[in-house]
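Our consortium's second objective concerns turning raw sequence data into structural hypotheses that experimental partners can test. To show how far this objective has progressed, the report includes one record in full. It was chosen at random from the queue rather than selected for favorable results. The single chain below, 196 residues long, was entered without modification.
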Amino acid sequence: MKTFSRLLFPSLLIGKKIEDDLSDVLKWAYSLRDTDPAGAKISNEGGWQSHPCLREEGSGPLCELLTREVGEVIAEQMPLNPGYGLGIESAWVNISGDGAFNWEHDHPLCFYSGVLYLRAPEGCGDIRFMAGGLPSTAGVISDECRRMYNIYGSWTVTPRAGLLLLFPADLRHRVEVNRSGEDRVSVAFNLALDIG
């Protein structure tokens, strides 16, 4: 019998650079913090997180941008079967100053999650995606084989302003410490299946 290999249960991370001017959305994000300085405490440590904000005054441009861009990315990179669609279920703003980070977490009861970086200075903290159980072979097999099959304990992405990332909602992730001396500002969101 010939040998064979298969990738089992891969996690699809999708990214896109948004070219739109995000300055108005960035101003709106700061205005949310101004009107609710306490914010929410979920996975953030040292930073500010809004309550769900899709229905807040001024959220229209953000909703339109996310709906358009997420729709295009899904159609191109992960087409859905007929009768299925995706809708943005919730979104919130993260403003993380120097020293702030987000603990490891996932987004239960959602299909996919995402983040759009509005401001991301160099050194502001990578997003790190964790393998679902550290592969026991990760430290034993050759680097060439690990690269070929993406056998890693974690994977990092360095944020840049305008970067949109989509990932499975159950993929555990965290955001590293911001060491830039400036704010990292993002909008995180969850996607739910729309059946019918």
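The partners drew two points from this record. The mean pLDDT is 91. Helices lie at 23-35, 60-77, 143-149. Both points have been shared with the crystallography group to help prioritize constructs.
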